[in-house]
Amino acid sequence: MCERRSGINLDTKTIHNNDKLFTLTKDDQHHETILIDTLNDTTVDVNSINETQSKIKLVLDDIRVEPPLTGIFRCSNISARYIIATWAFFGFFCLYSLRVNLSVAIVAMATPQSALNESIQSCLPLNKNSTTPSPKYEFDWSPTLQGFILGAFFYGYITMQILAGNFAEKFGAKWIFGGCVLIAGLLTLLTPLAARTHVGLLIAIRFITGIVCGPGFPSAAALWGNWIPQSERSTIPPAAHSGANVGIIVTAPLVSIMIAEHFLGGWPSAFYVFGVISCLWFCGWCIFGFNSPDQHPRISEKERIFLKQHIKTHIRQNRKTPWKYILRCLPLYGIIMMHVCHSYIYYTLLTSLPTYFATILNFNLHQNGLLSALPYFAQFLVTIIMGPIVDRIRRRNILSITILRKGQAIIGTLGTCSFLIGIAYMGCNQIGAVVCCIIAVGFLGLHTCGPLTSHLDIASNYAGTLMGITNSLAAIPGFIAPYVVGAITNKNQTIEAWRLIFNISAGIGVLGCVAYCILFNGEEQPWNRTPEARQRNESIASIDG
């Protein structure tokens, strides 16, 4: 007879009532329930129904509850998927620290150019008596060359994302994601030597670093498709991705402090410190990172069963990517528009906000480093707070995923764009401008835990490929946005010029939101399922009909 053992192991039991068959089975290989099929028939004995229902409830209770285990490196009080997400968080921290360290360090590396023949309209400094010692510059690079050095990363960043996402789906994301961080860290350790050898070698190092960092987000998306159930997709992936924000928050002020204190020779410390941290992170990822629950040797059996019951995954090594259906998918084009327009705002602020703070608001180096980090701390908080709220609404079926995602897009866009325009019209109100900037970037957190996770909503089995497509296109603003800012402010560093920059960014953000709301639908795409699953669904639909 059927009895409860460790986990949810069930002996096979067959109940006959009026020629109807009820079966509970046990799969010794995977330790999971294969099928419980009940036919709706009023002639079935009530006691038999109650007995079967009690056993079904026993199975479901075991699947939903994940009791703690014990042991060294055992996923005891913390689920395995949370541990992997935590390590991914620090992985994104490393990737973004390696991205932005040069943006801060280059201020102390290259001799600033003369401001003669430029129209500059700046505000009075907050502290007129504050002084910041000037660093010793090693390089005489023109502003144009500096821009090319900084942009080299993004030219490389755009190249490998689609291919990497597709490979991560087929062969696993662990080593692709981990390799990104390790190789980028090693290249970063070589950056000071490259800069002192020849500027061309520095540009090559940054270009290759961009190529290596590109697969980060697509490979992580493939990882989430195997590890994160639908009810947690507004919480766990955005929380892990927010490591990028923390990377910016920590890197900008820390690099400024290390340069000012001449730690490890000044500006080279920006590359040595974060390069070593990235290599150390990889050692931990080798131990705690895994492609899927089936490959994790220390996951609890009940969490493994829980994830297999709630995540629709299939083996894809011998399956072709449905490019025809992907290219015809209208919701994907909505995600693309939202992602690209969101990135334009993001990269405009990431690359140009320190310049605005320095030239217009007249903040010194220390003030600039701290204030440039605060907006991304606000984005981090919004992402962490709103993600669980959205998932709670989703679990309770209060709103459909389509309405939820569009609502996040609308609220996030209106908040961001309104305060972007607010920055433009603050003039020399330095405190007001900084507050508007913090709130504007904070509202971007609604995009991070919403529309930017939509790939998992429509096709979790191909999330790596979809993220590769959208993130590749979203990298284009990484070099377009600084070019637009440079063209507008060239010999024209005025409040009016920056007002135009912020207004353009706000308009692009609204455009992306409108396109997303028109094109996006959060329902799972039919091509995400295996042919066998589609046949089962069609059979069930015909029976129900």
UniProtKB/TrEMBL annotation:
<dbReference type="InterPro" id="IPR050382">
    <property type="entry name" value="MFS_Na/Anion_cotransporter"/>
</dbReference>
<feature type="domain" description="Major facilitator superfamily (MFS) profile">
    <location>
        <begin position="103"/>
        <end position="524"/>
    </location>
</feature>
<feature type="transmembrane region" description="Helical">
    <location>
        <begin position="175"/>
        <end position="195"/>
    </location>
</feature>
<feature type="transmembrane region" description="Helical">
    <location>
        <begin position="201"/>
        <end position="224"/>
    </location>
</feature>
<feature type="transmembrane region" description="Helical">
    <location>
        <begin position="369"/>
        <end position="389"/>
    </location>
</feature>
<dbReference type="GO" id="GO:0016020">
    <property type="term" value="C:membrane"/>
</dbReference>
<dbReference type="GO" id="GO:0006820">
    <property type="term" value="P:monoatomic anion transport"/>
</dbReference>
<keyword id="KW-0769">Symport</keyword>
<feature type="transmembrane region" description="Helical">
    <location>
        <begin position="409"/>
        <end position="425"/>
    </location>
</feature>
<feature type="transmembrane region" description="Helical">
    <location>
        <begin position="431"/>
        <end position="450"/>
    </location>
</feature>
<dbReference type="Pfam" id="PF07690">
    <property type="entry name" value="MFS_1"/>
</dbReference>
<feature type="transmembrane region" description="Helical">
    <location>
        <begin position="145"/>
        <end position="163"/>
    </location>
</feature>
<feature type="transmembrane region" description="Helical">
    <location>
        <begin position="462"/>
        <end position="485"/>
    </location>
</feature>
<keyword id="KW-0472">Membrane</keyword>
<protein>
    <recommendedName>
        <fullName>Major facilitator superfamily (MFS) profile domain-containing protein</fullName>
    </recommendedName>
</protein>
<dbReference type="InterPro" id="IPR011701">
    <property type="entry name" value="MFS"/>
</dbReference>
<dbReference type="GO" id="GO:0015293">
    <property type="term" value="F:symporter activity"/>
</dbReference>
<feature type="transmembrane region" description="Helical">
    <location>
        <begin position="497"/>
        <end position="519"/>
    </location>
</feature>
<keyword id="KW-1133">Transmembrane helix</keyword>
<feature type="transmembrane region" description="Helical">
    <location>
        <begin position="82"/>
        <end position="110"/>
    </location>
</feature>
<feature type="transmembrane region" description="Helical">
    <location>
        <begin position="270"/>
        <end position="290"/>
    </location>
</feature>
<keyword id="KW-0813">Transport</keyword>
<dbReference type="InterPro" id="IPR036259">
    <property type="entry name" value="MFS_trans_sf"/>
</dbReference>
<keyword id="KW-0812">Transmembrane</keyword>
<feature type="transmembrane region" description="Helical">
    <location>
        <begin position="244"/>
        <end position="264"/>
    </location>
</feature>
<feature type="transmembrane region" description="Helical">
    <location>
        <begin position="325"/>
        <end position="349"/>
    </location>
</feature>
<dbReference type="InterPro" id="IPR020846">
    <property type="entry name" value="MFS_dom"/>
</dbReference>
